[in-house]
Amino acid sequence: MQHGPISDIFAVMTKPCPPDPKTVPKPATWDARLARVLVTPLVGTPVTPNHLTTLRLAIGLAGAYYLSLGDFWLCTLGALLIALSNFVDHTDGELARISGQSSKIGHFYDLASDAFITVLLFLGIGFYVAEHHPSMAAAAQWLGGVAGVAVAIIFFLRMRIESMVGKSGTKQASMGGFETEDVLYLLPVVTILNGMTPFLIAACIGAPLFAVYVAVDYRRVVRRVQSNTKGAAAKDGNDFQAVR
């Protein structure tokens, strides 16, 4: 089917317009606010949120790799790249919001990248600690693996919760413009202070415990959704009986 000038004009007129960046509510956290300032000039350019997600993924992969090499300065460089990757993670979402380019595929790509980088982060720390403490009672690589698997479970369950009740159900706790994930900005400091070993042990304990908490929350959300579904079905049945 060919399109004439009239149909082309109609297509342009009916194409949804991106929102005015000034009218989009401001983010609650400082890094997201800075990210919005940096990506605002990209609105209307060929750069898409998925491009920024890919950039975040590449930086995070490089950071996890340098962490795993066991060299102090390369590990410090890796920690800096992980912190930068954590910041760039905010840019794709902010560009999507102010340009009207949000999509389910892009959101899934972003979540998958987050999970992948976080898992590799802990594995990289595990290899670094194993290089410097080969006599640990438990192999450091296994400790990093446990933390990484727990994080992967957390991301999966949070994605499932979000699919059932929306983003509000997985919103991170924030205080004073900071979120729980902002602890990654301190990773270079941890590296410089030779704190990777206690950091890994804390992650190996804390991540599984938080995974259990998220699993309990996931079960609670499932029950609530099932209860609401049954209640809606019963109400529809009663309305049908009343109509008859």
Automatic annotation (TrEMBL):
Q: Carries keyword Transmembrane helix? A: yes
Q: Which PROSITE patterns does the protein's record reference?
A: CDP_ALCOHOL_P_TRANSF (PS00379)
Record's family?
Belongs to the CDP-alcohol phosphatidyltransferase class-I family.
- Report the transmembrane regions from the record: 64-88, 108-130, 142-161, 183-216
Task: Indicate what this protein is called per its UniProt record.
Answer: CDP-alcohol phosphatidyltransferase
Which keywords accompany this UniProt record? Membrane, Transferase, Transmembrane, Transmembrane helix
Q: Which InterPro entries match?
A: CDP-OH_P_trans, CDP-OH_PTrfase_TM_dom, CDP_ALCOHOL_P_TRANSF_CS
Identify the domain of life.
Bacteria
